[in-house]
Amino acid sequence: MSDFLSLGISQTVTEDLRKFGVASPTPIQEQAIPAILAGKDIMAQAQTGTGKTFAFVLPLLEKINRNIDAVQALIVTPTRELAIQITHEFNKLIEKWEDVNVLAVYGGQDFDKQLNKLKAGRKIVVGTPGRLLDHIRRGTIDLSEISFLVLDEADQMLHIGFLAEVEDIIKVTPESRQTMLFSATLPSEIRNLATRYMQEPKNIQIESVQRPAENVKQIAIHTTDRAKQATLIELIEMYRPFLAVIFCRTKRRVSKLYDALKAQGYSCDELHGDLSQAKREQAIKRFREAKTQLLIATDVAARGLDVEGVTHVFNYDIPQDAESYIHRIGRTGRAGMRGLAITLYSSADRAALDLIEKSTQTTIQKQNLGNTKKEREGSQENSEGVGRTQNKAAAKKKQTSSNRAFQSRNNKNQKPAGKKQEGKRGQVSQGRPQKSSMKGKQTLGSNRKITKK
């Protein structure tokens, strides 16, 4: 297997990557990085969770001219959350660089603040189509010296209806630019876009059939619509996730489930398009810092969400298609770690579940709640939990919350045997996943005891 140095990434950046627990390139990085460094346009197809972001972030940092004080690289993304995430990845690597800076530009932020930062000079801009066009039409962003254009999650921009806006943005950039397109799928509209605006692009395809990552265990739990909420709560109590994303079909269902789990005393947040941008950013920040443990979200709001330590994904509502399923469960099992994805389905959902299995060429283990409990008890007896190892940087970053309590649903009036009633909600002590090389490796979701505050 190659390393980043052999791909052309500098020693400094390679060492920084190792500090973040990234030592070896993924297949998409192995193919994309040399091509980008060589100045070629690329059209890359790879599923979520394969390292697409670093596939363009790393070579762009190598190619940026630090002596030119102008916007040189533009990354266009379908959602605010993905723009924030990509900006975060850039900032991790350029934290100590004084002559390279990056700005996220998206709707919901104060326009004047963005304008002031643009005037101060930014070499890299990451933005959503709508807000970028606002700046272009007002003449508040200059793209005349763009050398590198990245279209990330291009199929999602098509799905959301941003393709016309993307073309308008492309038209104001120099024809001499280097263009990079990344997408999980390549429908005809995306291929036509590449034909019109790219120069003999190198085609990169990482596994044509989208399949879930092998390190994510998949289970489907049969339930009914009426019993779905109670089933989810039992599963949360059973598995005690360190961090979990719970997907719902609509904003309304996200809010309804959030209210129900909050009322039960769970540490949770909601994430959907009806929230203000400030509230969405705060929710992601709390989740990233493990201040909340359950994030209830819609598909669009969670697009591109990449948070270290997500051990479980719950599909409260079955995804509309295989692509959405792949994206959802790709929130766990990141960077080769282990994860668990649980899908709740009713008899009416069985056809949709079968279609997901056929499209992804996988078989999802089907259980009812009783069988799941038995399997869970057996795995605990054998000290085999589902979880993921944690790299040293992430473990250090979140060390202060490593033993935080996860709120449970103990009845306030229930009196423990031989103890005085304390009148406070019970809590479950939460262990943190440990790096596999550490002594006393801990498995998630096993041997956790209910304690009192």
Q: What are the SSEs and their pairings?
A:
Layout: H1 4-7, H2 11-19, H3 27-37, E1 42-45, H4 52-63, E2 73-76, H5 80-93, E3 102-105, H6 111-120, E4 124-127, H7 129-138, E5 148-151, H8 154-160, H9 163-171, E6 178-183, H10 188-197, E7 202-205, E8 216-222, H11 228-239, E9 244-247, H12 251-263, E10 268-271, H13 277-288, E11 294-297, E12 312-315, H14 322-329, E13 339-345, H15 350-360, E14 365-367, H16 369-381, H17 392-397, E15 405-407, E16 427-429, E17 450-451
Parallel strand pairs: 1-6, 1-7, 2-4, 2-5, 3-4, 5-6, 8-13, 8-14, 9-11, 9-12, 10-11, 12-13
Antiparallel strand pairs: 15-16, 16-17
Helix pairs in contact: 3-4, 7-9
Keywords:
seven-stranded parallel sheet, disordered C terminus, 453 residues, 17 helices
Explain what this protein looks like in three dimensions:
By secondary structure, this protein is α/β, with parallel strands linked by helices. The protein has a seven-stranded parallel β-sheet, sandwiched between helices. A seven-stranded parallel β-sheet has the order 10-11-9-12-13-8-14, with helices on both faces. Helix 3 packs parallel to helix 4 and helix 7 packs parallel to helix 9. It is globular, with a radius of gyration of 23 Å. The C terminus is likely disordered.
Structural class: alpha/beta
Shape by Cα distribution? globular
- Largest sheet at a glance? 7 strands, parallel
Total E-strand runs: 17
First-to-last CA distance: 49 Å
Q: Rounded to an integer, what's the Rg over CA atoms?
A: 23 Å
What is the number of helical segments per DSSP (H or I, 4+ residues)?
17
Strand line-up in the sheet with most strands? 3-4-2-5-6-1-7
Mean pLDDT: 82
What is the helix content? 25-40%
Strand content: 15-25%
Extract low-pLDDT stretches: 383-453
